[in-house]
Design goal:
The complex is a heterotrimer of chains A (about 260), B (about 300) and C (about 325). Chain A has about 260 residues and is an alpha/beta fold. Chain A has 2 domains: about 130 residues, P-loop containing nucleotide triphosphate hydrolases (Rossmann fold); about 60 residues, no CATH class. Chain A has a 6-stranded mixed sheet, sandwiched between helices. A 4-stranded antiparallel sheet of chain A has the order 2-1-4-5, with helices on one face. In chain A, a hairpin with a 2-residue loop joins strand 4 and strand 5. In chain A, helix 3 runs parallel beside helix 5 and helix 9 packs across helix 10. Helices cover about 75% and strands about 5% of the residues of chain B. Chain B contains 10 helices and 2 strands, in the order H-H-H-H-E-E-H-H-H-H-H-H. Chain B has a two-stranded antiparallel sheet. Chain C is an all-alpha fold and about 325 residues long. Chain C has a domain of about 220 residues. Chain C has 13 helices and no strands. In chain C, helix 3 crosses helix 12 and helix 11 runs parallel beside helix 13. The longest helix of chain C is centred in the first third of the chain and has 26 residues. The C terminus of chain C is likely disordered. Classes of the chains: A alpha/beta (about 260), B mainly alpha (about 300), C mainly alpha (about 325). Chains B and C meet through helix 4, helix 8 and helix 10 of B and helix 6, helix 11 and helix 13 of C.
Chain lengths: ~260, ~300, ~325
């Protein structure tokens, strides 16, 4: 059974530094798949390779049955990938509604329309408002994105990503800097997406991971350390050592590729 | 040697001289951009300041080498002050983005250009080379101006000096570290603010010195600042922003293309310069020796 | 603050519409109120304003700061002059041809230039501007070299019509042309495409992650700005009846950018205001300041950059730090 997203021995080298080493993983359609691991494990690199902002040194990526390894980032986005950025990546001079409208407008194929005023495309506008309601920002539609609080920015970040109706949503440390209440609310939002949106999430907050994830992959020093259900991973000794015990210390001070 | 070589050797040597002069202009621009991400559009105007300094000191016909050395010292002083001043002026705009800073230097360029025009008039001023370099030297049967050979020597010496400073000195290491990761350098206790001012001053000093060095070759007149700025930019784009060896390579290439072009195909000289730049950028978008990931 | 995506009825404010209407009426009445010398100068202001508005769309809305708009401007001016001397004196025909010439130049170099960003883009446009300037200088057969092309005949408003010699009538023609062209630019700015440009300006990487190809919009706006500049060039020549390489110089590009900076980025009408300031200072005030117009403009430039509340905002030049 093939997953919605499959990577096959994905590798990224920077000279002699190996950021990602032959990582093969499979994300099933409808799954909520978490990628965890200590800092420097290669999680963000994996995301960059999957979305296309970085080119792999070796390996292949298959999405929705097609080989997308050679395709540029915008093509992969059109194929159904959406991502949120670790540090909120918004259109700061534009109001909140316009931020989301950029996404819904692309989904409607109207990005190059030069004649009618942007506001005349009612479908675009309404779709954008619906996304804002979903994340709870409907009341802030006319506020410039730059004026939002940190938590609101993260909400907008997700709204923009969801507005393209993606098949695969990649969340890069979405709850970083969030309070416990905000994190819980965020987890609820992800749960509400249902099986229509497959989620691949990088997270450090293990509470969120074990609440949301249907499958967990652990990365360490660029390699897959473990891959299985949350319970399997939690019980895995090598994982425990990587997070807590000697193995991690050894690698930090005496070897590894740090 | 083959006839075409000896015929064109003079032009080629001229190309090297011009290229070396271009290097002194371009390297300052490249360094300032490398460390501050600021494109100093006043760079050409500051070259012109140096040229007019030479005009001032070499007035009255055959000036001695002493006058030129004094002009050089004056250029260093003026350049250091102007560079530090520019660094201070652009600092408050840093949080608003590098374009604002570049625009500020553009305004300063207009101001300096007009002040020079008011002080020295609009005529082309020529500067005779120092007395003992005023003659010519025999080169493969042709007479070649000794001053231009001196320019090559002085320019090469300067290039070596700058390279040593940037690549081999502690100060240079700090500068390169700041370019790579400024917060880290600050965490080590180094005042990057002062470092930035120092680099800016250094870059501008190089521009002014270039003006003094080049005055007997290019003269001084309103509009020269634009020409110098453009050439400097083309060299820097070719050689990659922030790279000293890139500036050197780019300068030699452009110097050769410009001089040979003017000599062999005067109608198309500009085309050649731009064409060279376009070809290089098509093949290597960050310039010949530029670092990948720089604002391209 | 309203959004561009909201329904237009909600976004339009009666006060702004009234103010705009008043300004238009005033502009139309100018020839009846002032001397022909002043009308001539205001004609030049209008032509230059069109150049600035086009640049504002390129730099202020799309975030592509260009110091080379003098190139399509000059190419348009030369095209109009050459047409006027050898082919036809019909103003609107010259206008269209000049706009096409400006767009063609932009299309030829933009293909390469638009791949670069921020400062690299700025430098490349500067270089292109200078190359075209030098070409105008040297290509004596076509451009008349440094002496330029003099004796450009007065335009006519339609084939077989009388040559326009009254400053007031010329002013009305230029005003009409500028209103039409600026109107088109404004339409583009308000459109979905305009929003795409703003998105690219604010965060090109994010746009790509949303599925936008960013090259076609940037290329398109670069060509549109080239067309606007070319059109402005033809209007300039219609008034001055003379064109020389100086009209292609770096100073023209710098003054256009200054106009945009003074006017505040992206508003388009602000650029027109900035253009008025620039032309007025250079032409009216400069002689009274002992010819030190450029100095004053430099000071105004510096002040404008400092005082603008958000600066030339949105045009941050990022150095990618390897972040995904």
């Amino acid at each position: 059974m093939t997953g919605l997203l499959e990577t096959e021995r994905l590798t990224r080298r920077y000279g002699s530094l190996v950021a990602l080493d032959e990582v093969s993983l499979s994300v099933a359609a409808g799954a909520r798949h978490a990628v965890i691991g200590p800092n420097g494990a290669g999680k963000s690199t994996l995301f960059a390779l999957v979305t296309g902002s970085l080119r792999p040194t070796a390996g292949r990526i298959r999405f929705d049955g097609q080989d997308v390894t050679g395709r540029p980032d915008h093509a992969r986005a059109r194929a159904g990938m959406a991502k949120t950025f670790q540090h909120s990546s918004l259109f700061t001079s534009l109001p909140v509604l316009d931020n989301v409208a950029l996404a819904t407008r692309r989904a409607a194929g109207l990005g190059m329309a030069m004649v009618r005023p942007a506001g005349r495309h009612a479908a675009v506008r309404e779709a954008a408002m619906r996304q804002l309601e979903l994340v709870g920002l409907a009341g802030r539609a006319a506020v410039p994105a730059a004026a939002l609080s940190h938590g609101e920015r993260r909400q907008l970040e997700v709204a923009i990503a969801l507005a393209t109706s993606p098949k695969l949503l990649l969340l890069d440390e979405p709850t970083a800097g969030m309070s416990a209440a905000d994190s819980a609310r965020f987890a609820e939002l992800v749960e509400s997406l249902g099986a229509a949106v497959t989620v691949l999430i990088i997270e450090h907050d293990l509470d969120v991971v074990f609440r949301l994830a249907t499958r967990v992959t652990v990365l360490h020093l660029g390699r897959v350390l473990a891959d299985g259900t949350p319970d399997e991973v939690r019980a895995d000794e090598t994982v425990q050592r990587a997070y807590l015990g000697d193995a991690a210390l050894d690698d930090l001070f005496f070897g590894g590729t740090r | 040697m083959p006839a075409w070589l000896s015929d064109n050797l003079i032009t080629i040597v001229d190309g090297v001289a011009f290229g070396v002069l271009l290097f002194t202009i371009a390297v300052g621009l490249s360094l300032v951009f490398g460390i501050m991400d600021v494109l100093n559009l006043a760079h050409g105007a500051l070259y012109l300041v140096g040229a007019y300094v030479a005009v001032r000191f070499a007035r009255g016909g055959q000036a001695g080498i002493g006058a030129f050395l004094l002009a050089g010292l004056a250029a260093v002083a003026v350049g250091a002050a102007a560079g530090a001043g520019l660094a201070v002026l652009t600092r408050p705009l840093a949080r608003r983005g590098h374009l604002d800073q570049a625009l500020l230097t553009l305004g300063v360029a207009l101001i300096i250009g007009d002040l020079l025009s008011a002080r020295f008039g609009n005529d082309v001023q020529s500067v005779p080379p120092p007395a003992f370099l005023a003659g010519s030297v025999s080169l493969v049967g042709h007479d070649y101006p000794s001053y231009r050979l001196a320019v090559i020597i002085a320019g090469l010496a300067l290039a070596v000096l700058v390279w040593l400073l940037v690549e081999r000195s502690r100060a240079g290491a700090l500068v390169r570290a700041t370019v790579a990761d400024a917060p880290m350098v600050r965490a080590l206790g180094v005042d990057t603010g002062r470092l930035v001012v120092a680099v800016f001053a250094f870059g501008v000093v190089l521009a002014c010195l270039g003006g003094v060095l080049g005055a007997p070759v290019l003269g001084a007149y309103p509009g020269l600042d634009e020409r110098v700025l453009i050439l400097g930019l083309v060299v820097v784009v070719l050689g990659g922003l922030g790279s000293v060896s890139g500036a050197f390579l780019g300068a030699l290439v452009i110097g050769q293309v410009e001089v040979l072009g003017v000599s062999l195909l005067p109608q198309y000289a500009s085309f050649l310069v731009f064409g060279t730049m376009a070809v290089v950028l098509l093949l290597r978008p960050t310039g010949m020796l530029g670092r990948a990931g720089k604002p391209g | 603050m309203s959004t561009a995506t909201e329904a237009p009825a909600a976004a339009a404010r009666p006060a702004t519409a009234r103010a705009a209407g008043a300004v238009l009426v005033l502009l139309a009445l100018v020839p009846l109120l002032v001397s022909s010398n002043v009308a001539d100068m205001l004609t030049r202001v209008l032509a230059f304003a069109l150049l600035a508005i086009g640049l504002d769309l390129l730099a202020g809305v799309a975030g592509l700061p260009s110091l080379g708009q003098a190139a399509p401007f000059g190419v348009g001016a030369y095209a109009a002059a050459l047409l006027g001397k050898h082919v036809t004196t019909v103003g609107p025909v010259q206008l269209v041809a000049a706009a096409a010439a400006g767009a063609a130049l932009a299309a030829a170099v933009g293909w390469l230039l638009v791949r670069s960003r921020g400062t690299y883009f700025l430098m490349l446009t500067l270089a292109v501007g200078e190359i075209v300037h030098e070409l105008a200088d040297r290509w004596e057969g076509v451009t008349g070299g440094t002496n330029g092309l003099a004796g450009v005949p007065a335009i006519t408003l339609y084939p077989g019509g009388p040559p326009v010699r009254l400053a007031g009538v010329l002013y009305w023609y230029v005003l009409a042309a500028v209103l039409v062209c600026a109107g088109l630019l404004w339409m583009v700015s308000r459109s979905a495409f305009g929003q795409t440009l703003r998105g690219i300006r604010d965060n090109e990487e994010r746009m790509r992650s949303l599925g936008y190809r960013t090259f076609p919009p940037k290329y398109a706006v670069f060509c549109i700005a080239g067309a606007a500049a070319g059109a402005a060039g033809s209007l300039w020549v219609a008034q001055s009846r003379f064109v020389s390489p100086a009209d292609l110089g770096f100073e023209v590009s710098a003054m256009a950018l200054l106009a945009v900076v003074i006017g505040g980025r992206g508003s388009l009408w602000g650029a027109a205001l900035g253009a008025a300031v620039v032309v007025l200072v250079r032409e009216e005030l400069s002689p009274q300041l002992g010819g030190r117009g450029p100095l004053v403009l430099g000071l105004v430039f510096v002040a404008a950059v400092y005082l603008l509340p958000r600066g030339f905002a949105g045009m941050r030049i990022h150095r990618p730090r390897g972040e995904a």
